[in-house]
Amino acid sequence: MEITITPVLLVGFFAGAITTISAIPQLYKSIKTKETKDLSLGMIILLLFGVTAWFVYGVLDKDWALIIANIIVIIVWGIILGYKLKYK
Amino acid sequence: MEITITPVLLVGFFAGAITTISAIPQLYKSIKTKETKDLSLGMIILLLFGVTAWFVYGVLDKDWALIIANIIVIIVWGIILGYKLKYK
User: Rounded to 5, what percent of chain B is helix, strand, coil?
Assistant: First the structure.
C-alpha cells in the first residue's frame, strides 16, 4: 500500500500532529500532579471510543493522516485513562 | 455542493458523533464543579488549534464528516476553555 503525499494530505498530517501533541501537556500534568479529579472519566472513555472509530474510518477510506494520528492519540489518552483510574 | 452518503462516510459521521459527544461529559463536569485545575490549558489550546486544522483539512478534502464534526468540537471545547480561564 503506497502513500501519495499531496498538499491536502500534508494539512491532514499537520492537523494530526497538533491534535496528537495536544494530549502530551495533559499527560505531563496528570503524571506530575497525580490529580485527575477534574477530568471527566466519561469524556476519556468516549474519546478513546471515538478516535478508535476515526481510526476505522481512516482504514476504510485509506486515509493515512487519520490512521497514523489516531493510533498515537489512542496510546497517549490510554495512558491518561490509566492515571485517571489509578488516581481518581 | 452535494453530499453523497456512502457506508464509509457513515462510519466517519459515527466517529465524529462519538468524538463530539465525548466533550459533553467534560463540559458538564466543568460547569457543575467549577473546578478545572486538573485540565491542562496547553492541551485545550493545542486541541482547539488541532481540530481547527482538521476542519481546514476537511474543507480541502471536501470531507463532510470531518467538517461537521470539527465545527461542533471547536464550539464545545471553546466553552470548556472559557471555564478553564474563568475558574483556574
Answer: 80, 0, 20
Show which of residues 57-86 on chain A sit within 8 Å of chain B, judged by CB atoms.
57, 60-61, 65
Residue in chain B nearest A32 by alpha carbon:
B38
Min Cα–Cα distance to chain A from B47, Å: 5
Q: Residues B49-73: pLDDT tens digits?
A: 999 998 999 999 888 878 888 898 8
Answer whether A21 sits within 8 Å of B46, measured CB to CB.
yes
**Chain centroid to CA B26: how far?**
12
| Domains, chain A, with CATH or none | 37-88 (1.20.1280.290)
Which residues does B43 contact at the CB level (< 8 Å), separation at least 6?
Answer: A22, A23, A24, A25, A26, A29
Sole residue written with cell 499527560:
A27
